Amino acid sequence: MAQQTTIRGAVGPIPARSSSARTAARIPPIAELKLGWQERGLCQSGDATVFFAPDSERIREREKREAAAKRVCEECPVRQQCLEHALALPEQFGIWGGLTELERAEEGRRRRGATSGRAPVVVPIRIGTQRDRGFAEAQAQASREGTEVAA
């Protein structure tokens, strides 16, 4: 049996069996990469699982994990660059710039509304039965005409 060698890659030892292992060997370890603002992020020294949801996470666990990640982001010197990066790509998963996926989506919508120069479109939600809606429409018509509608 041939001796199996390993190559030290960016994520640890990789079996040297394929061309992809040889390619991975040329990728420097993450500590040697020059990533700019990302190198100064406080998240680099912590546990990455705090910033990304594991499979089948319960609501309480998610809330605790997100709160812990946001505490790290509050102190981070590159929080704004991180958020801008996440909104520009857009990053679909994890905590970036102190915002969750849903919060980033809302921020993106807010920014698009602000840059277009007009207010976002608000669609009213109709609640109730057809009779209730008919009554509301009759009231609106009556108020335009200056009359009253009996309930």
The percentage helix is 40-55%
For the record, give the distance between the C-alpha atoms at the N and C termini, rounded to a whole number. 90 Å
Q: How many individual helices?
A: 5
Largest sheet: 2 strands, antiparallel
Strand order of the largest sheet: 1-2
Please state the structural category: mainly alpha
Protein name: Transcriptional regulator WhiB
Keywords: 4Fe-4S, Cytoplasm, Disulfide bond, DNA-binding, Iron, Iron-sulfur, Metal-binding, Transcription, Transcription regulation
Region (Disordered): 1-23, 132-151
Cofactor: [4Fe-4S] cluster
Structure description:
- The mean pLDDT is about 75.
- The chain is about 45% helix and about 5% strand.
- It has a two-stranded antiparallel ribbon with strand order 1-2.
- β1 (about 5-10) and β2 form a beta hairpin.
- The protein has about 150 residues and is mostly helical.
- The N and C termini lie far apart (about 90 Å).
- The chain has helices at about 20-25, 60-75, 80-90, 100-115, 130-145, and strands spanning about 5-10, 10-15.
- Keywords: 4Fe-4S, Cytoplasm, Disulfide bond, DNA-binding, Iron, Iron-sulfur, Metal-binding, Transcription, Transcription regulation.
- InterPro entries: 4FE4S_WBL, Whib.
Summarize this structure briefly.
This protein is mainly α and 151 residues long.
SSE diagram, text form:
Blueprint: E1 6-9, E2 12-15, H1 19-26, H2 59-75, H3 79-88, H4 101-115, H5 130-145
Antiparallel strand pairs: 1-2
List keywords for this structure.
single chain; mainly alpha; elongated; 151 residues; 5 helices
